Amino acid sequence: MDNIKVIYMEYFKLNNGEKMPVLSFGVFDIKPENTKEIVLKALNVGYRSIDNAQVYYNEKEVGQAIKESDVSREDLFLTSKNWVSNAGYEKTIKGFNKTLEDLQTDYLDLFLIHQPYGDYYGSYRALHDLQKEGKILSIGLSNFYPDRLIDLIMNNDVVPQVNQVETSPYFQQWGAHEIMKKYDVLHQAWGPFSEGINDLFENPILKEIADKNSKSTHQVVLRWLYDRGIASACKSTHADRMKDNMDIFDFELTKDEIEKIKEINTGKSPFIDHNDPETVEEFNEEIV
Known about the structure:
CATH architecture: Alpha-Beta Barrel
Radius of gyration: 18 Å
Distance between the termini: 44 Å
Structural class: alpha/beta
Pfam families: Aldo_ket_red
CATH topology: TIM Barrel
Organism: Methanobrevibacter millerae
CATH superfamily: NADP-dependent oxidoreductase domain
GO molecular function: oxidoreductase activity, acting on the CH-OH group of donors, NAD or NADP as acceptor
Protein name: Aldo/keto reductase
CATH class: Alpha Beta
Strand order of the largest sheet: 3-4-5-6-7-8-9-10
Number of strands: 10
Largest sheet: 8 strands, parallel, barrel
Family: Belongs to the aldo/keto reductase family.
């Protein structure tokens, strides 16, 4: 493995005083048999934040990669997410303990409720109790849009530190972002590249901005999010692309460029509508 080291990283300060890296390496849709090698590659490139989830089914392999790497646990920011089949207080505790076992660690830096379905109020109480015990440093949500985010905040004693929602040039989430800012919840983007659909990387607006800044369209997207105050979780299996994705801290987009990118916005996800009744039914079928 090439000994590539990228050591510079910016951080966002969370509402509980903890720090979270701007960029996280996501392991969604990486096959278990390939996960260890790819995570080791990401750590070697310089990633220190790993975004995982129970439903990715590769937590054991991520844990093995961390064990075999020369990066100390204290230098890592580990995230995982509680799946809907573990919704509710007791199931969340049990699922969390399994996640710790698989990742071979005794605490997580961030644990999220993955979907806003089922007994997520019970799950959130479990997260808060685990946080008070020191087993989770920061707690949060994933895929909670403004209505459910506000409702949860107004009916709990602790405000979540992070809300991870799909955010990309196609689905820019301006309104949701303002709500998160209002309640001091860090906005983290999943799917920032929309998996490259509809020739995103060849989009003329992004390419023009990239050429002007001597950067790639990938870097423009991640910098666009950072300039908006949004953290990102993204994935690549190639070391050169991993490194490219991290190299976004030596330029800044202008206000005009950020405004120009708004022209790409469709206002909806190209993948999933969390408010669609069929989506709600599908996720709830996994709750037993």
